[in-house]
Write a structure and sequence with these properties.
The chain has 415 residues and is mostly helical. It contains 17 helices and six strands. The strands form three sheets. Strands 1-2 form a two-stranded antiparallel ribbon. Strands 3-4 form a two-stranded antiparallel ribbon. The structure holds NADPH dihydro-nicotinamide-adenine-dinucleotide phosphate (NDP). The site of NADPH dihydro-nicotinamide-adenine-dinucleotide phosphate (NDP) has 18 residues, from helix 13, strand 6, helix 15 and helix 16.
Length: 415
């Protein structure tokens, strides 16, 4: 957000929006968890009975969350990994990032499995503690955002210092707040949140077995689909360095809370719903969902890899041919081959297809089991518009030439 480009009224409106965001975002995580868990995923008006499910932090949830965060910090800082350089910053510097996410992911899952097998914690622990855990994670992460704010303010550029305290807390006081070599944005984008998402899914699967004595194929599918998504993220960890979030998004409440609370507790809602709806999909439906998810994955991964490889080495063959591109005045090249010649954001299409497949495993006629897809659809449409404006400003006439050649934004012949 460039405050130098805003009128006073615009800035005031944004600030009201930020206050509402601080109030409503945590409230939504409670709402959807309670509605799915205790009201069969129905959209209900929260009355006193509903609100009675908002649990205070329990000792177990506090101990777990603190230990979990400390474990992820230790793994990120102590595990070996090659150092990748990020894209150049505005001042020409590049920052190094340690690529040890896959090892941290595997070790975290192994540790979780070990603790369950050794009977130290029950497999249903996260499910049993869920109501308290949502509160605990919200409170602790709001506190962490204060710390991120403080170090961000210290490390901010003169332009970033123009933000008032509310703006700096919500959007982020600096682009890459760091404590020694630990980059808080890179760390929080994946480790404590995304790995917890997968552990929550496994705990929901265990809860389904404990309650109904059966593991439905829908639960198996949603756990497998999301495990693939997160494992892929860590296998391709270096590709995150060229994403919008790492390059352009300051690190504050929006990203920090989004990655640490929103991702684990709302992306896992399909599994939570299935705990008490242990339905088995027909073979035809299961195969169709597997194919749909795999097609989404192939488009998502294929498009992201094509851009990543092209930017590293523009001569790399794409679908058997040397790729075509538009050479921009800024010096960078815009790819017009492969997925990038079909639509400007095929990667978003693939991601949305996967999201839809996950939600469809629930087979529900209610709205909330589809919460992830609805939210993600809005997010990616907005993000595509924002990226479009950013590229139009950055590339000028070259962007016009690109958009004239690649007409569709996300879905060919539709959008
Ligand atoms: P992209 O990876 O699509 O990056 C957009 C940038 O790529 C543009 O700003 C431009 O940057 C460059 N670019 C655009 N067109 C071209 C082209 N034709 N050739 C070469 N470079 C081009 O966007 P995101 O960072 O938003 O998304 C990355 C992935 O992360 C996506 O798959 C998305 O679905 C996923 N994602 C997932 C989320 C989740 O919550 N699960 C949330 C957000 C994203 P430049 O300045 O370099 O030219």
């Amino acid at each position: 957000m460039d405050v130098t480009l805003q009128t006073r009224t615009q800035r005031r409106l944004y600030n009201v929006g930020f206050l509402l965001m601080l109030l409503f975002c945590p409230a939504i995580t409670w709402y959807v968890t309670i509605a799915i868990r205790h009201y069969d995923g129905a959209l209900v008006l929260p009355d006193a009975a509903f609100l009675s499910h908002v649990a205070p932090p329990s000792l177990a949830s506090l101990a777990f969350y603190v230990a979990w965060f400390a474990l992820q910090l230790a793994l990120a800082t102590l595990l070996p990994g090659r150092i990748e350089q990020g894209v150049p910053l505005e001042d020409g510097r590049t920052l190094g990032y340690r690529m040890n996410g896959l090892a941290a992911f595997v070790l975290s899952l192994a540790l979780g499995a070990g603790l369950v097998l050794a009977d130290v914690v029950p497999a249903t622990f996260l499910h049993d503690q869920l109501d308290a855990l949502v509160t605990t994670a919200n409170l602790l992460v709001l506190g962490l955002c204060c710390y991120i704010y403080a170090i961000g303010r210290n490390q901010a550029t003169p332009k970033e210092r123009l933000l008032n305290p509310l703006e700096a807390y919500v959007i982020g006081a600096a682009l890459n707040p760091r404590t020694r070599s630990l980059d808080w944005k890179f760390f929080c984008e994946s480790r404590p949140g995304m790995i917890l998402w997968i552990l929550l899914n496994f705990s929901f699967a265990a809860a389904q077995v404990a309650r109904h004595g059966t593991l439905s194929n829908a639960m198996v599918l949603v756990c497998a689909f999301q495990l693939l998504y997160v494992a892929d993220y860590f296998v391709m960890e270096e590709a995150i360095l060229t994403t919008w979030d790492i390059r352009h998004e300051p690190f504050g409440f929006m990203l920090c809370w989004g990655c640490l609370v929103w991702i684990p507790f709302t992306f896992s809602l399909q599994g939570l719903y299935l705990v008490d709806h242990p339905r088995d999909l027909s073979w035809a439906a299961a195969i169709a969902l597997v194919l749909f998810n795999c097609a989404g994955y192939a488009i998502f991964r294929g498009a992201n890899l094509q851009k990543h490889r092209f930017r590293k080495s523009p001569d790399t063959k794409m679908w058997g041919k040397t790729p075509s591109f538009i050479q921009t005045q800024r010096g960078t090249k815009l790819l017009v081959s492969g997925f990038w010649g079909i639509a400007r954001h095929s990667n978003y299409l693939g991601d949305l297809m996967m999201g839809l497949a996950w939600c469809m495993t629930t087979g529900s006629s209610r709205v909330l089991p589809y919460f992830y897809f609805i939210y993600f659809f809005i997010l990616l449409i907005h993000r595509e518009r924002r990226d479009h404006d950013h590229c139009a400003r950055k590339y000028g006439a070259d962007w016009d030439a690109y958009t004239a050649r690649v007409r569709w934004r996300i879905l060919p012949f539709v959008y």
